Amino acid sequence: MIRSSSAFLLALLLSSAAMATPRWGTEAHDRLAAAPGAPATPVAITLDACGGAFDASLIQTLVDLRVPATIFVTKKWLDHNPAGTAVLLAHPDLFELEDHGTSHMPAVIGKDRRIYGIPAAPDAAHVEAEVAGAAQAIRTLTGRAPVYFRGATAIYDAQSLQIIRAMGYQVAGFSVNADAGATLPEADIAARLRAVRPGDIVIAHMNKPAGATAEAFAATLPQLLARGYRFVTLSGARLQPV
Predict the structure, then answer these.
(1) How do residues 109-129 score in pLDDT, each as one tens digit?
(2) Is the separation of the CB atoms in 44 and 233 below 8 Å?
(3) Which three-class secondary structure state does DSSP give residue 25?
(4) Domain count, the chain
(5) pTM for this structure?
(6) What is the domain-level CATH number for residue 171?
(7) Is 170 exposed, middle or buried (0-12, 13-18, 19+ CB in 10 A)?
(8) Nearest to 108 by CA among 15, 27, 176
(9) 141: containing domain
(10) Helix, strand, coil fractions of the chain, as percent rounded to 5
């Protein structure tokens, strides 16, 4: 009976793990391609603004240290954070806005599908609208069309990737997940940032000020700068899948 109960518990745990794993697509991973003749490949910081609030402390750290970042914004975040948006727009030399979707819907098609608990796009038309709505909002604010798209959860299926690319956008992956959706403690985020290497594309979040992302960046970025790291936005960069 004990063996039977143990087997049942193991099967339940394995089943739960499988259910928690996205089965409907793949996560996009990229690094910066080395530029011919460049002394060292830089690092790109990318910050997602999915929904929620504005992490003013994180952005102020970047401003104070003169560290540029590519900000992936949803239209939903822009609509609810006009003051935060104004701060980003006030520093065009540091921050560029790119497309994170209209309502933070994953770029995976299927009415019955959920990625990390978020409902997927019911059909192709919803994927197109998810990309186009945020793109138009960015054009209205900045006068420039976004080049990159990063979908909610960074999980994509083949059909959605085809749609996004046909619309003229490049999917932006990453190589270092710094804060796991702003859920990690400061020490863990700082450790991941200290392990960054030239060519890495870092993903973190600027929409959860209650998290520890701002504190970890404030503690770690000066160390990386002291080690000679150079930071760039994705504008003009060439991404290399990994």
Answers:
(1) 999 899 999 999 999 999 999
(2) yes
(3) coil
(4) 1
(5) 0.90
(6) 3.20.20.370
(7) middle
(8) 27
(9) 26-241
(10) 40, 20, 40
